[in-house]
Specification:
- With about 100 residues, this protein is of the alpha+beta class.
- Helices cover about 45% and strands about 20% of the residues.
- Helix 1 crosses helix 2.
């Protein structure tokens, strides 16, 4: 399994971080637009990798705060090699989550 990090969380929070990092509104909106553009490019690159393996079965889990993919080890390795995804740092076999035990079959 790999995790995809886009660097985009909440539109207001993200724009606010740009407002705080710049000296004026125009620069803040340009900075925010670049962030969104970079995220879109990242997603396009992932799509191109997946397109290269049309018969592969991949599972995508898109949650509120993260995106993970699982499936073909070959594709996962390519995504990690191209720095489009990373292997999560948390333990994949057994994880505690809000008092519930999650066990990977």
């Amino acid at each position: 399994m790999v995790e995809i990090y886009l660097g985009y969380f909440k539109q207001g929070d993200d724009l606010n971080s740009c407002l705080e990092a710049t000296s004026n509104n125009v620069d803040a909106f340009h900075m925010h637009a670049k962030r969104l553009y970079d995220c879109a490019k990242h997603l396009d690159k992932i799509a191109e990798v997946l397109k290269s393996y049309p018969d592969a079965k991949m599972q995508v889990d898109a949650n509120v705060h993260f995106i993970t993919m699982d499936g073909s080890k070959e594709i996962l390795d390519v995504l990690v090699e191209k720095e489009l995804a990373s292997v999560p740092e948390w333990d994949d076999e057994e994880e505690e989550c809000e008092g519930e035990e999650i066990v990977d079959d």
